[in-house]
Design goal:
Layout: H1 3-12, E1 16-20, E2 23-27, H2 34-42, H3 44-53, H4 69-78, H5 88-111, H6 116-120, H7 144-148, E3 153-156, E4 160-164, E5 170-174
Antiparallel strand pairs: 1-2, 3-4, 4-5
Helix pairs in contact: 1-3, 4-5
Length: 210
């Protein structure tokens, strides 16, 4: 297939391609057949040239969607652009973590009842957020994938995910009863200030003049 035939097949599928920099952006990528996606990858330079030639220049690589049907739409949309009030670097990390998690745990997460909000949820920003507002700081509304930050999940249950840290430590993330503000929904106890112990039934001897 040449570039014109590929672009025609993409349009017939109800999808579209555009150019951003040196990358191709696909909208409605789930509608593109695997064979067409392969042809796009093999003919990327020619397709970019064709789009630029007809003025259809406008980065999202051809989207790879998970097998777990529950997460396909949300993860596909997430890859297109960062959500409002989320740093670009955190969005990129979330997309990478999402790909790894869904490849390894997507089917099991779906079977265990993890929802798209449990994995990719975010706090709904106020209409006029305060300058100090940080969307990812609302851990009670933040999904698991946003909190991985490159760390792998090593075990998954209906209510928890075990996350391997940079050392041998394992953090247990709990999807229910998360604090509104905190590191994450982990079961790791919050350090409490040390309380001074008071001895009972003892008083220092009174000082007497000799």
């Amino acid at each position: 297939m040449n570039a014109a035939e590929i672009l025609s097949a993409v349009r017939q599928a109800g999808a579209a391609l555009r150019v951003e920099g040196v990358s191709l952006v696909a909208s409605n990528a789930s509608r593109i057949a695997p064979a067409i996606k392969a042809a796009i990858r093999e003919n990327k330079p020619q397709i970019i040239s064709a789009l630029l030639a007809d003025g259809t220049a406008c980065k999202v690589t051809i989207i790879e969607l998970p097998q777990a049907q529950r997460y396909r739409k949300v993860f596909g949309v997430l890859q297109l652009k960062p959500p409002a009030l989320v740093p670009v670097e955190r969005w990129r990390q979330c997309v990478e973590d999402g790909k790894r998690f869904l490849a390894a745990w997507g089917s099991q997460a779906e079977a265990l009842g993890w929802t798209t909000a449990d994995l990719f949820g975010l706090h709904t920003p106020p209409e006029r957020p305060h300058p100090s507002y940080r969307r990812l700081s609302r851990y009670d509304c933040t999904g698991l994938i946003w909190l991985l930050e490159g760390r792998p999940v090593v075990a998954l249950t209906e209510a928890t995910a075990s996350i391997k840290g940079t050392t041998v430590n394992i953090t247990v993330y709990r999807k229910h009863n998360k604090p509104a503000l905190g590191r994450n929904g982990a079961s790791k106890p919050v350090p409490q200030p040390e309380k001074k112990k008071r001895q009972r039934g003892f008083e220092p001897p009174a000082l007497r003049d000799s």
